[in-house]
Design goal:
The protein has helices at 2-10, 22-43, 48-54, 62-67, 74-86, 95-115, 118-129, 132-137, 145-164, 167-181, 186-204, 210-238, 247-272, 276-288, 290-298, 302-318, 338-354, 360-376, 378-386, 393-403, 427-431, 441-444, 506-525, 527-539, 543-556, 559-572, and strands at 409-414, 437-440, 457-462, 486-492, 495-500. It has 578 residues and is mainly alpha-helical. The chain has 2 domains: 2-386, no CATH class; 393-572, no CATH class. Strands 2-1-3-5-4 form a 5-stranded mixed sheet, sandwiched between helices. Strand 1, helix 21 (427-431) and strand 2 form a beta-alpha-beta unit. The longest helix has 29 residues, at 210-238. It is elongated, with a radius of gyration of 27 Å. The termini are far apart.
């Protein structure tokens, strides 16, 4: 009797008798999701954050592996283990995330099939399997797919405990709760805290006996106390504090946070989910239609899965002290919305399947609307497979090593104002050796002696959309890309390679190139080129020429730009030319 009561109070009764082909629709969704995740892992180039994450994986020092990423230890340890066993490679080094994404679909499929929602569950699983966010960030070498998988695994184990009262499922829930906090802290903390609160409320209201709910309150609370809090303290000591919960800070940031949600977050979500009116209508219908809402209320796990990304979004926009143009909310964080919205789709679809009181026209209309939700996200999924999100530095390395002479001097930069982060040239360590020489202009002013004395000079420019973002989503710089005396030798991926109209060689040629590009970029965007040229002049003993060049830079800049250039030059130690 207890089992029957639990089933009725925590999950929906079977919507319809299971048909022979129903399981194959679930299997098909998982297989499709697996294929898409593998293709994305093979096609998307590693971005700078991924390369940084993987840098310590080759080490045999566990301390270096776990501390070198400023992430909880589980994902780095698994990534390092895979690399030690299988070596480096596009898919191999993303294997942990790929398997986690596929595992999430498998576990979610088992959960939905067990709930007895039939083809409605399979349809929701297809929506999740083809979601652009899930496909992209299940092929991303950082801990996003792994904590999502572990969260869903906890849900499945907890539901099985409620259904079967087997201590084995309770042990699996405890293991998943500890592991999810060892993979990521913010969303799992919210998820587990909401889970504990949900079960405590259900027991208090009499929907569950305390003998059933008590362990599912104790496990999240214990995991948060024994694993989550120490992990938070450890990571807080390794990185800058990104949370400011002071009331005055929240009040000051509230207008800006609301503005960023409306102008930044919502457009971002609309590009990564089905056409935004469809997604909005799914959410509204799930909350407004009584039968759908009642079904969701019976599924205890919906609210913890939704609370994790929603609360994190609010905290990010109101507790984050950094300007949003420096640290915006990224699509990878929105991956945690996928299960919650997928469950809303399932609830709506299963309600339509059972709604005998609805008119035939209404049922067809809602079914068509749900089909449009699935189809509406497929262009985004195709974009993940066909378009590079980040700059392909492997291709850049191939072009430089195969199409330029080995003694070439390549000056690398991107059109971005001084004082902002310039994406570094990350191809050297992984994809190419020491030749040809590639000098990053944003670092050249402090190391002019690194420029070779001989060799033809080229300039490699990364698109300005990638200047301050590894996913190339910045507004383009106001620069037309035209430089007097230089022509485009090759355009590829997100790069443009320039060569001179006439022979330009050695350090003198590098000075000439830097001055040409500084003139084209203007004082704000070309300040680093000017400082690098001045540093090379100073290295040659031409101090007066270097000093004159810097004076010309400040004279050409507006007062505000000149002041910003001066402040950043002093802060970055770009040298004194007085």
């Amino acid at each position: 009797m207890a089992s029957i009561t639990t089933q009725q109070s925590t999950a929906s009764p079977p919507a319809e008798p299971r048909r022979v082909l129903d399981p194959w629709w679930y299997v098909g969704a998982v297989v499709m999701g697996a294929v898409l995740c593998v293709l994305a892992a093979l096609n998307q180039p590693f971005n700078q954050n991924e390369l940084k994450q993987m840098r310590p994986y080759g080490s045999n020092d566990l301390s270096k592996i776990t501390s070198g990423t400023r992430q909880p230890p589980l994902d780095p340890l698994l990534g390092s283990l895979v690399q030690h066993l299988l070596g480096e490679g596009q898919l191999r080094q993303r294997l942990v995330s790929v398997l986690a994404g596929i595992g999430m679909l498998v576990v979610m499929g088992l959960l939905l099939y067990r709930l007895g929602v039939g083809l409605a569950g399979a349809f929701g699983l297809w929506v999740m399997a083809t979601a652009p966010l899930l496909v992209r960030y299940s092929a991303y070498t950082r801990p996003y797919a792994l904590p999502l998988f572990l969260s869903v695994l906890f849900v499945y184990a907890a539901q099985r405990w409620l259904d079967d009262r087997s201590k084995g499922w309770l042990a699996l829930a405890a293991l998943a709760a500890a592991a999810v906090l060892l993979s990521r802290v913010p969303e799992p903390t919210i998820f587990l805290a909401t889970t504990a609160a949900t079960f405590a409320w259900m027991a208090w209201r009499g929907r569950l006996a305390w003998s059933q709910a008590g362990p599912l309150v104790a496990i999240p609370v214990g995991a948060l106390a024994l694993v989550g809090y120490p992990m938070y303290r450890s990571l807080a000591g390794q990185s800058e504090n990104i949370w400011d919960p002071s009331p005055s800070g929240v009040i000051d940031r509230f207008p800006g946070g609301v503005h960023e949600i409306l102008t930044g977050l919502l457009p971002l979500l609309s590009t990564w989910m089905p056409w935004w009116p469809l997604t909005a209508l799914v959410i509204i219908a799930s909350l407004v239609i009584p039968d759908v809402r009642r079904r969701l209320l019976r599924w205890w796990f919906v609210w913890p899965l939704l609370a994790a990304p929603v609360v994190f979004v609010l905290a990010y926009h109101f507790l984050n002290p950094f300007p949003f143009d420096i640290r915006p909310y990224r699509p990878r964080m929105a991956m945690f919305f996928v299960p919650g919205i997928g469950l809303m789709v399932v609830a709506l679809a299963s309600t339509v399947a059972e709604a005998s009181a609805w008119s035939r026209r209404a049922r067809i209309g809602v079914a068509a609307f749900l089909a449009a939700t699935l189809v509406g996200q497929l262009p985004g999924t195709a974009s993940v497979l066909l378009e590079n999100e980040a700059a392909d530095f492997e291709q850049a390395a191939y072009v430089l090593t195969h199409e330029l002479p080995s003694d070439a001097i390549v000056l690398y930069d991107t059109a971005s104002p001084i004082g902002r982060w310039h994406q570094p040239f990350t191809a050297k360590i992984r994809y190419m050796g020491r030749k040809p020489y590639v000098g990053q202009v944003s670092k050249l002013a402090t190391a002019p002696q690194s420029v070779p004395e001989n060799g033809p000079v080229y300039l490699l420019f990364l698109d300005s959309e990638c200047a301050f973002s590894v996913v190339c989503d910045e507004p383009p710089a106001p620069w037309d890309g035209q430089v007097a005396g230089w022509r485009v030798a090759k355009r590829f991926d997100k790069f443009t390679l320039y060569e001179p109209d006439h022979s330009v060689t050695g350090r003198a040629g590098a000075i000439h190139a830097l001055r040409d590009f500084a003139a084209s970029l203007g004082p704000d965007y070309g300040a680093l080129e000017t400082f690098s040229a001045a540093a090379l002049l100073k290295l040659q003993g031409r101090r007066d020429a270097a000093r004159q060049l810097i004076k010309q830079l400040y004279a050409a800049a507006s007062p505000d730009v000149a002041d910003r250039i001066r402040r950043n030059a002093e802060a970055d130690g770009l040298g004194s030319f007085d």
